[in-house]
Each structure stands twice: as C-alpha cells, then as structure tokens.
Amino acid sequence: MKAVRELRKTGWLVYRVKGSTKFNRNVDIFTLFDICAKKNKITLWLQIKSNRKPVLTPFEDFKKKYCCKHEKCEVWVYKDYKGKKEYRI
Questions:
Q1: Is the domain 2-88 a CATH 3.40.50.11480 member?
Q2: Which end of the chain is more exposed for a tag (fewer CB within 10 A), N or C?
Q3: Residue 60 β-bridge partners
Q4: pTM for the full model?
C-alpha cells in the first residue's frame, strides 16, 4: 500500500493485485507484477519487494518481448528502516 499511496500522490492511476504474496504468485499480473499504473501515455509495470532484490532476468525478458517505448518495468525494494531502492529495467 505504501507504493500505491506514493504513486497516487504523484498523479498515477493505479491497479494493485489483491492477494499477492511470495507464496501465491499466480495472482500477479503475468506472474511478475503487483501493480500496473497509468499516467498520461506511460504504463508502469511494478513489482514490490521487501528487503531483497529479486532476480531481474524475468523482468528484463518481459520488457524486451512485450514493452513499447511508452512502458516502464520497475522493481521497488522497500528495506526495513532504510527507505526504498528502485531497479529500473
């Protein structure tokens, strides 16, 4: 919800998958993303993690195969007590 609030505060229209957990990935969008957001002509595909950076290869592969110039794929990692780290793919 922290990411959703952050995105909405900056004008993004946000769709968040409900029920996504590390044990139940089949509810993620394309089994990869927790959030899809739109702002102007930009679509943001976003995976949210806590404390650990995931393997980025599946996200890079998705971007190469399916994304156009108006789409972004990002992984945000919220670290306990340290804020957020972004990985843009």
A1: no
A2: N
A3: none
A4: 0.82
- The DSSP bridge pattern shows strands 71-79 and 42-50 to be parallel
Take residue 24 and report the two structure tokens written for it. Answer: 């139940």
Q: Are 10 and 44 in contact (CB under 8 A)?
A: no
Instruction: Give the three-state DSSP class for 8.
Output: helix
Asked whether residue 64 carries a pLDDT value surpassing 90, the answer given is: yes
24 DSSP β-pair partners = 21
Q: How is the chain split among helix, strand and coil, in percent rounded to 5? A: 25, 40, 35
Query: In the predicted model, is pLDDT for residue 14 greater than 90?
Result: yes
Angstrom distance (rounded) from CA 48 to CA 75: 6
Task: Tell me the one-letter amino acid at 18.
Answer: K
Q: Would you list the domain boundaries of the chain?
A: 2-88
3 state DSSP class of 18? coil
Average pLDDT, the chain: 87
